[in-house]
Specification:
Distance between the termini of chain B: 52 Å
CATH class of the domain at 10-83 and 145-228 in chain B: Alpha Beta
Shape of chain B: globular
Radius of gyration of chain A: 20 Å
CATH superfamily of the domain at 10-83 and 145-228 in chain B: P-loop containing nucleotide triphosphate hydrolases
Largest sheet of chain A: none
CATH topology of chain A: MetI-like fold
Structural class of chain A: mainly alpha
Oligomer: heterodimer
CATH topology of the domain at 10-83 and 145-228 in chain B: Rossmann fold
Number of domains of chain A: 1
CATH class of chain A: Mainly Alpha
Strand order of the largest sheet of chain B: 5-6-7-3-8-9
Structural class of chain B: alpha/beta
Radius of gyration of chain B: 18 Å
Strand content of chain A: under 5%
Number of helices of chain B: 8
């Protein structure tokens, strides 16, 4: 039986290897969410404001892609980045860059789908006013994204939660290389299968604390923003 | 020099709006010209708001037409204040600045001053009271330097003091030469503000007259009933 004390010792003992793993996990997931948001926020807002043939199909597809299996995304990115793949010349397979790319693809549908829903609801409220003010379509998107900013932080957090918690894609495209592409989730999977349960538990604990911490930070920022902006 | 484009007269020619099989506005013939405020008076559901949306160009009639200064497309100098205006999630000053084409702090301050909100410039718009929000919506509409300002029951949910503040602004704006077209079901408000009255019921224009004539001696039994305080169905 692993005892809780050794797990805690590991967490608070200042093990540099552990901190490196925590740091990489954070770096990869935060970068992935940022990259995904850059594409998915405007895309979701655009979908909310426009009507064109095939729109419903795209909306349903994006909603469905929220449940993409991480290993499948990992496999697709693996094929894309492998030496003989179309992006093989980049040479980023088994690097943090590949992990960021894979997680971004995984998270993009979540952010796009939730953004579309949020902006569509807000647009129902704003439509007449912005039309009466003769606001251009591009400015509508910007206005709605800005005015929905507090709801959208929750959307980004949902994306971050998914990215930080998943194992499949980073395992496949990162390779779980010690000191280079090992994240908390891949390390937990490895240590569990090796039987080093205290380490696995310690990492699990850190991961949960980290996710709670990020959410608490975002919540605080949202509250402060709401108080100031009304 | 080119003559400035004008959206007046605003004309409805046999305009109807039908939605899901229900006729909301029927065969409306109406011409609105410059001058004192035109008040659209009538019970709830008489088509006042729809008429304003048609006049603002937000919706198109399903038959007939609406023209602005003889043209099928309005110039940009129309503005509208809704019954429940949307306050953008930012400060009062930023809400006004949003409606301006260029950044102009001085103009923002002047507009806020005009509606008596200069002291609340930095307050989040959504934290303002109902009356203050309505005044901010007026400032935002005025930022567009409108030739015609449409008002859709702007005081429907306000207390008398807030209503007076809004009416005072509306009167000052009208005096400055902006054409006011305002919907209301409040007879007292119509009396206080109207230069002429367009009386509507069930989506139809029932009576059109100058205020001095309409209130003491309405020509139709429906208008007379409405002014007496009867329910006009």
């Amino acid at each position: 039986m692993p005892d809780g004390a050794s797990a805690l010792q590991l967490v608070f003992g200042g093990d540099p290897a552990l901190y490196a793993i925590v740091g990489l996990s954070l770096y990869v997931s935060v970068s992935a969410v940022a990259l995904a948001a850059l594409v998915a926020l405007p895309w979701g807002a655009f979908l909310a404001l426009t009507h064109f043939p095939g729109r419903t199909f795209i909306v349903v597809l994006i909603n469905a892609f929220m449940g993409l299996p991480p290993v499948v995304v990992g496999l697709a990115v693996y094929l894309l980045l492998s030496r003989s793949g179309p992006l093989g010349s980049l040479g980023i397979l088994f690097t943090p860059k590949a992990m960021i790319l894979a997680q971004a693809l995984l998270v993009m549908p979540i952010i796009a789908a939730l953004t579309r829903q949020t902006i569509e609801d807000l647009w129902a409220e704003y439509r007449e006013e912005l039309t009466a003010l003769r606001v251009t379509p591009a400015r509508r998107v910007a206005t709605l994204l800005w005015d929905a900013r507090f709801s959208l932080t929750t959307t980004l957090l949902a994306g971050f939660g998914r990215a930080a918690a998943e194992v499949g894609t980073v395992m496949i495209v990162g390779g779980n290389i010690d000191g280079f592409t090992r994240t908390m989730t891949t390390a937990i999977a490895l240590e569990t299968s090796k039987g080093d349960l205290p380490l696995a538990m310690g990492l699990g604990l850190v991961l949960i604390v980290l996710i709670v911490g990020v959410n608490a930070l975002a919540w605080g920022a949202r509250r402060i923003g709401e108080v100031r902006a009304g | 020099m080119r003559a400035p484009i004008t959206d007046l007269p605003l004309a409805f020619e046999d305009a109807s709006l039908r939605a899901r099989g229900v006729e909301i506005v029927s065969n409306l013939d109406l011409k609105i010209v410059s001058g004192a405020p035109t008040v659209l008076l009538g019970p709830n559901g008489s088509g006042k708001s729809t008429l304003l949306r048609l006049a603002m160009g937000l919706i198109r009639p399903t038959s007939g037409r609406v023209t602005w200064g003889g043209r099928a497309i309005p110039d940009e100098r129309l503005a509208m204040v809704f019954q429940r205006p949307v306050m953008l999630r930012r400060s009062a000053a930023a809400n006004v600045a949003y409606a301006l084409e260029r950044r102009d702090e001085q103009r923002v301050r002047a507009l806020l001053d005009r509606v008596g909100l200069a002291a609340l410039a930095q307050r989040p718009a959504r934290r303002l009271s109902g009356g203050e929000q309505q005044r901010l919506a007026l400032a935002r509409a005025l930022a567009r330097d409108p030739e015609i300002l449409f008002l859709d029951e702007p005081t429907a949910s306000l207390d008398p003091a807030a209503t007076k503040a809004v009416e005072d602004i509306v009167q000052a704006v009208a005096a400055s030469g902006v054409k006011i077209v305002m919907a209301t079901h409040d007879i007292g408000q119509a009396r206080r503000l109207a230069g002429d009255v367009v009386f509507l019921a069930r989506g139809r224009l029932i009576e059109r007259a100058g205020a001095a004539q309409f209130f003491p001696s309405p020509a139709t039994s429906e208008a007379a009933a409405f002014l007496r305080g009867d329910l006009v169905i």
